[in-house]
Design brief:
63 residues, five-stranded antiparallel β-sheet
Length: 63
C-alpha cells in the first residue's frame, strides 16, 4: 500500500480491512517519515509493531 492510501484509510470514518503478512490489523499511527506505521492485531491491543506501509495490504471494505 502506498502512504497516501494509508492516510486515507487511517482518517476515514469507514472501517477498512487491512492486513500485514496475512494477518488483519488496525493502523494506530502513521509516522512522519512517510514510510512506516504503528499497527496492532485486530483482536489484540497489547501487541503493537512498527512496520513499513508498503507491506500493508487493503483487503476489502467492511460494510
Amino acid at each position: 500500500m502506498d502512504f497516501s492510501r494509508a492516510q486515507q484509510i487511517y482518517s476515514s470514518p469507514k472501517e477498512y480491512e487491512v492486513s500485514y503478512n496475512g494477518v488483519s490489523i488496525w493502523i494506530d499511527k502513521l509516522h512522519e517519515d512517510g514510510k512506516t506505521a504503528t499497527v496492532h492485531l485486530r483482536h489484540s491491543l497489547e501487541e503493537r509493531s512498527e512496520v513499513d506501509v508498503s507491506e500493508l495490504k487493503e483487503e476489502y471494505l467492511i460494510q
